[in-house]
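[agent] plan:
  1. take the single chain provided in the ticket
  2. run structure prediction with default settings
  3. attach structure tokens to the ticket
  4. add a short note for the reviewer (M.T.)
[agent] executing step 1
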Amino acid sequence: REESPGKAVKGIYEWAESLVFAVIFVSVIFTFVVRVITVDGGSMNPNYLDGDRVLVTALNKDIKQGDVVIISNVQSIESSIIKRVIATEGQIVDFDDQKKAVLVDNVAVDDAQFGVENGITELYWSDHSMLDFPQTVPENCVFVLGDNRTFSKDSRFESVGMIDKRNILGTAVFHIYPFERMGKAK
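[agent] step 2 finished; step 3 output follows
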């Protein structure tokens, strides 16, 4: 029994309609819900290396200390950056040069919880102007640092400063690549 040309065309249209719907659905999910971000640079070593792939979600609106975030529209940086939230709105950030510690509300941040060596706060290079500390994080903003503090352009610099939460694309939730480092984001 032969199929009529009308049924074949209808089948092709239905198949194409399903394909278009699937592409739109996946595009919406990967634009507004989750994204795969490729780390560029070494400012988040040892946790995130250059070329690593990270799954990021935009659903987490409750950004807290320790979260790793992807930020866009930073004043002097063309591409998105990945950094760790050290302080949130209303908190006071300072640096203790004696103890080589980052202070949030006069309490030293335990960087070991993030897999980072405590006591690394200084910069070995800097041709950029730094903010004066202590600094209070403004409303709807966060203060971020790279895990590799020695070589990270972050909220310590005037050119980056406090990060408006509207510029946070999302929070890292899963380390995808390389496979040997696959797992929940640190």
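[agent] step 4 note for reviewer: The longest strand covers residues 168-177.
[agent] ticket updated
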